[in-house]
Design brief:
CATH topology: Rossmann fold
Number of helices: 12
Oligomer: single chain
CATH class: Alpha Beta
Structural class: alpha/beta
Number of strands: 13
Distance between the termini: 65 Å
Strand content: 15-25%
Length: about 350
């Protein structure tokens, strides 16, 4: 069965600086289960991109295989898109980014697509500091194949079948920190007030930006014994602070009491405000971030918000000194400049 979005929209929908409404950033109607947290994440992506006034053709959305990887069909219908094979989305994103650095690369994956078959690809995308937003829709189970535990299912957590998971889980944020990720954050699909600013900040970050979103599977992993259920996450989430993103084009006039907030200036001049941070937590210090995450884990809590940010690390283009122009704009004379250029290169290597 196929679906289309209704054509009618309220004539007074808010428009952004480009003159677009949110409708211009939507996709087809979702075929996921009613109440799926993934649809909330899709809605957060639509709002974030609309409010940032990003032209749809400037975004390339990429995914692998899984419930989460179906979602790019449900947002940014006027953007570039590529649905890769299972766990191989980072390779496609790397190749695309090397060919055209002018696009914003938005990768969408799941806990199986990332933490199992795609773990090697995830690792190297981080190691290279690939300039992309990597959103994980994390529900702790394989929703497309009847709810088996995934690698992110917490030890002792019970799925719909009632059997407790005997294995320790892979914490994607802790893993990303250890691998050298330059932007690490976690949120909850049911908390758009936190999730939307984090997505905006991730888009403005230069380098690899992880947004790990706990997104309960309403069909297979929303039982009382699941640590990825709506009830558990709502009662155990511990935020690093209230998050507010201010684009660089807007005047920054925020005022806060001393000692209750931190302003995080992004590469493009935009600002992420973190208010009422936990005492001793520093989002610019990796050791502080790892300690805070471990303390929350031992207390049975789920740490959300901006976990870590490195504003100084060079991204993959800087590391490789790649050409600034997209490869599809290079002419034959650019690609084959003649023997004299080759002779100069050879002479420089002697």
């Amino acid at each position: 069965m196929s679906f289309i979005n209704p054509g009618f929209r309220h004539p007074e929908l808010p428009i952004n600086e480009l003159g677009y409404t949110k409708k211009d950033y939507e996709g087809t109607i979702s075929t996921l289960c009613a109440g799926c947290g993934h649809d909330s994440i899709s809605g957060a992506i639509i709002r974030a991109v609309h409010e940032l006034s990003i032209p749809p053709h400037k975004i390339a959305k990429l995914s692998g295989i899984g419930c989460s990887s179906k979602t790019p069909a449900y947002f940014l219908g006027n953007s570039h898109g590529f649905n890769a094979v299972h766990g191989r989305m980072p390779s496609v994103a790397t190749g695309a980014a090397m060919a055209n650095r002018d696009l914003i690369y938005l990768g969408v994956s799941g806990d199986g697509d990332t933490a199992s078959i795609g773990m090697g690809q995830f690792t190297h995308a981080i190691r290279r500091n690939l300039n992309m937003v990597y959103i994980v829709m994390n529900n702790g189970c394989y929703g497309l194949t009847k709810g088996q535990d995934s690698a992110t299912a917490d030890e002792g957590s019970a799925s719909k079948k009632g059997e407790a998971n005997p294995f320790s889980s892979i914490d994607l944020c802790s893993t990303a920190l250890n691998l050298g990720a330059t932007f690490v954050s976690r949120s909850f699909s049911g908390d758009k007030e936190q999730l939307i600013p984090l997505i905006k900040a991730a888009i403005s970050h230069r380098g690899f930006a992880l947004v790990d979103v706990i997104s309960p599977c309403v069909t297979f992993n929303n039982s009382g014994g699941s640590t990825k259920s709506y009830e558990f996450v709502r009662s155990h989430a511990e935020a690093t602070g209230t998050v507010d993103f201010v684009p660089m084009r807007e005047e920054i006039t925020a005022h806060y009491d001393p000692g209750t907030s931190t302003e995080v200036t992004m590469h493009d001049g935009s600002v992420l405000h973190l208010r009422k941070l936990e005492e001793g937590f520093d989002p610019f210090d990796k050791a502080s971030a790892m300690t805070a995450m471990e303390e929350q884990r031992r207390a049975g809590k789920i740490m959300t918000g901006l976990v870590y940010l490195d504003r100084t690390a060079p991204d993959l283009h800087e590391l490789l000194d790649t050409v600034h122009r997209p490869l599809n704009t290079l002419s034959e004379s650019d690609l084959c400049p003649g023997n004299h250029v080759l002779e100069n290169i050879n002479a420089s290597l002697r």
